[in-house]
Amino acid sequence: MAKSKNLLQEITKGIIKENPVLCLVLGTCPTLAVTTAASNAIGMGIAATLVLVCSNAAISLLRNLIPDKVRIPAYITVIAGFVTIVQMLVKAFAPEIDKSLGIYLPLIVVNCIILGRAEMFASKNRVLASMADGLGMGIGFTATLLLMGSIRELLGAGTIFGLSILKNFMDPIIIFLLPPGGFFVFGMLIALANKLNKGKTAKNVSNCGGCPMHGICMSDGREECDK
Questions:
Q1: What DSSP designation does 9 have?
Q2: Angstrom distance (rounded) from CA 210 to CA 165
Q3: Would you say the pTM of this structure is higher than 0.90?
Q4: CA distances from 53 to 75, 82, 88 (A)
Q5: How far apart are CA 115 and CA 195, in angstroms?
Q6: I want to staple 134 with a disulfide (CB 3.0 to 4.6 A). Which of 53, 66, 79, 179 is the partner?
Q7: Is residue 163 helix, strand or coil?
Q8: What's the pLDDT at 4?
Q9: First and final CA of the chain: distance in angstroms?
C-alpha cells in the first residue's frame, strides 16, 4: 500500500508541484515553438512522455553499470535511441504531426526535462519509481503544452483542434500565434502555477538539482550552479 502511494506521489508531483515547464522552467524552447496549435502540443507532449518513461526505465536499469565520468554521454545515447524509435513511429502513423513538429521532434534528444530527470532521478532510483517519475513529468509537460496550445489557437485563430469556436464572435488576435503572444501566455501560466503553489515556484526554480551539470558543480564544492 505504501509503495503504491509513493508511486502515485511520483506521478502527481509533475502536474503542479514540480511541473517541469511552469515550476522548474525546463523545455521552454519546444513549449513556445509548438504551442501555436493544440494538436501540435499534444503530439509533442505524448512523444516526450514516451521518451521520458522509456529512457528513465533504461537508465535506472543501467545506473550501476554506467561510469560516473561518462554518464551524461551515456544518458544522451539512451535517450537518442528512444527518440529515434518514437520519431519513426510518428512518421509512419502520424505524418501530419511529424510535419507540424518538424525539427522539434528529433530535438527531444536534448530536451532539458528528459536529461534532467535522468540525472536527478532515474540514475538514483529503482525502475518502477523512475518510470512513475517520467510519467508524471510527461503528464505535466503535456498538460502545459495542451493548455498553452489551446489558449493560443483559440485566441489567435478562433479554433481548437481545427474546430471553429470563436470565429463567428470575434476576429482572431494574430499576435497570440506569434512569439510575443507565446511569451505572454507562458508568463501568465507561470504566475498561475506560482499562485497554486502558494508562492513556492521561485524556490523550486533556484534549486539546480534538475540540471545535468549539478553533479559536476557539487564536486567542485559549489552548492548551486553558476547563474
A1: H
A2: 39
A3: no
A4: 13, 10, 17
A5: 27
A6: 53
A7: strand
A8: 67
A9: 42
